[in-house]
Structures are given as C-alpha cells and as structure tokens.
Amino acid sequence: MAASVAFSPACRRLPCNPLSASTGALSLVRLAGCSRRLRRACATAEPSDVLPGSGAGELDGLVPAGLLEELPEGLAFQGAPDGSGGHPMLDRGINAAIVLGAITFALTKLLTVDHDYWHGWTILEILRYMPQHNWSAYEEALKANPVLVKMMISGIVYSLGDWIAQCYEGKPIFEFDRARMFRSGLIGFALQGSLSHYYYNFCESVFPCKDWWAVPVKAAFDQTAWSGLWNTIYFVALGFLRWESPSTIFSELKSTFFPMLTAGWKLWPFAHLITYGVVPVEHRLLWVDCVEIIWVTILSTYSNEKSEARILDDSSTTDTRDNSR
After folding, report:
1. What are 94-106's pLDDT values in tens digits?
2. Which positions, given as ranges, span the membrane (predicted)?
3. 120's torsion region: left (phi>0), alpha (psi -120 to 50) or beta?
C-alpha cells in the first residue's frame, strides 16, 4: 500500500522524536523502529483500521490510525514503489544476496587456496596448511601489486565497518543502506588504501631511526598530522558522494573535526605501539585495517548521523514554513 504522511501540529506532543532539543543528536534506533512499524502496519492493515485524509498538514492517503502517536515530528515516510521503502522484501533479498555471496566467495577463496595440491590430502591436512598458504599467497600478491592489494583490503574493511555501524544504529542485519555502504567502501578502496601505502613509506623516510623513542614519535605524528588530514579527506569525499554543497560539507567537518580527532586518541595510540614497534612497514596497513573495522564504525556513525540529522532538521523546517502559510 502506498502511503505518505505529513505531520500536523497535533502530532508534536508525541514522544517519538529523533531530534532532541537539548542536544540536537539523532536517535537512529528509535527512528528506524518507528519507520519499520509503520511499513508493517500499512502492509497488514484492514480497511476498518485506517483513516482517510486530504489536504496540506493532514493525511494524504490511508494510514493506520493508531500509528500516528508513534511517528517522530518532521518525518516524511514514502511507501510508494519509487520511495526508498517501497519494496522492503526485495531490498532485504538483494542485501541478503550481497552479504551471503560475499561470505561464500571469501570462504571459498580461503578454503581452496591449495586446491591444486589436494590429491591424497585429508581434511586435517587441508585445514593445517590453509592459514600458512593463504598468508604466502597474500605476500606474493603484495609483492606483485602492493597498492592494488591494499586498496582492495581497505575497500572491504570500509564496507564492513559501515555495515556494522548501520547494525549498531538499529537496522536489521539485512536492511542496511546499500548506497551508504557502497560510498564508504569506495572511499576505502580509492583513497584510504592507496594514500596509506604512501603515507607509511613516507613516515619511515621522515623517521628512519630504529630506537625505542621513535615509536611514540611516529604514533604522535600519526595521530595529529595524518589523522587530521585523513579525517578531513574522508568527510569531504563522503559529502561529495552524497551530493552535498561545499558549505554544508565544511559546516559538518568543522563541527566534527576535533571530536573525531580526540576520539581517535582513545584507540589508536595503543594500536600504533604495535604498528610502529612490531609490524614491518609492508604489513602495517593490514594490521591497521584489522583495527580500523572498529574505527570505521565510529567514523561512519559520526558522519552519517550528522548528515541525517541535518536532513531531518531541514525537512522539519520546510514543513513548518509550509504550515505557516
């Protein structure tokens, strides 16, 4: 059933509001829950359970009467096929195919690394040599195409990190935003992998000393100059991929730059004691990407929370102006 909801002033007394007037923060879990309940109820509602409506500020279409009290102020829901929530079953099916296909492909590549030599091997022998030979295959690929391999690893990590962020925000495991996950993965592939490859080589050339004191110096340089530069690149690139204006991107970057920089100080200094003290330079990005699954989850949540809060705020402001005319 196609439905669109515009909210009247009467609905503003209701509690499910994702924008807090005191903090301005977005509660994505409550917002997602309200939207999902509306879609399910619209799909199963009987004719006697819905209210007709028309005109600006009223119901345009048919909406279950009991759901108005659960919807946040300023939320515009589109259930039509051309809206983002028009075919939830199809979206879930596509998302499930993407996730299961990626997992199947990864497991197949890992488990069959020795398939040319399996003749006479037992299952235990296959499992015994699988980790060692997968690492050998990774090192050979790294020597042949170091930048491309690191770009692919970073693309996977940034896609996975954004998926985890969406699940953390309250979305079901197969109801993630594919466009958002693609944007994050594209940034990881096109920018993070290649830039980090050159950065770690540059860092070694600037601080070639192998003494113990060089490790905290490199970590400090990483968490000031490089971290600030990369966070800026990430936010700007993500903003352009979302077709946001330069002024909007700059405003969001200015409000999140120092919170993101200081948030990184709670995680990365400890990780970089291993990065610069133990891990060889050619494998540093692999180690950093393993830790970065956590960091990308934080980074993606910060960026998209700001963007979605701004979109909802703009929508609420527009509705208020229309109702006042």
Report:
1. 999 999 999 999 9
2. none
3. left
Q: Which residues contact 85 (CB under 8 A, 6 or more apart)?
A: 35, 39, 77, 78, 79
Q: Classify residue 39: in a domain, yes or no.
A: no
Question: 97 lies in which domain range?
Answer: 88-144
99/178 same-domain check: no
In this model, does residue 172 exceed pLDDT 80? Answer: yes
How does residue 303 score in pLDDT terms, banded at 50, 70 and 90? low
* pLDDT value at 127 more than 90: no
Q: Are residues 164 and 297 in the same domain?
A: yes
Nearest to 170 by CA among 40, 32, 302, 293: 32
Can you tell me the distance from the alpha carbon of 71 to that of 128, in angstroms, rounded to the nearest whole number?
55
In the numeric block, which tokens belong to residue 305? 């929370």
Question: Do residues 212 and 312 both lie within one domain?
Answer: yes
- Band the pLDDT of 28: cuts 50, 70, 90: very low
Contact at 8 Å (CB) between 315 and 74?
yes
Does residue 181 sit in the same domain as residue 104?
Answer: no
Instruction: Report helix angle 284-324 to 268-277, nearest 10.
Output: 150
Task: Give the CA diameter of the chain.
Answer: 81
pLDDT score, position 298: 77
Tell me which amino acid residue 254 is.
K
pLDDT of residue 194: 93
- Element of type H or E holding 24: none
Q: What would the two tokens of residue 112 be?
A: 């069959």
Domain boundary among 144, 163, 179: 144
* Average pLDDT, integer, range 38-51: 45
Are 40 and 85 in contact, with CB atoms under 8 Å apart? no
Read off the tokens for 199.
Answer: 């950065």
Helices H, strands E: what count in the chain? 11, 2
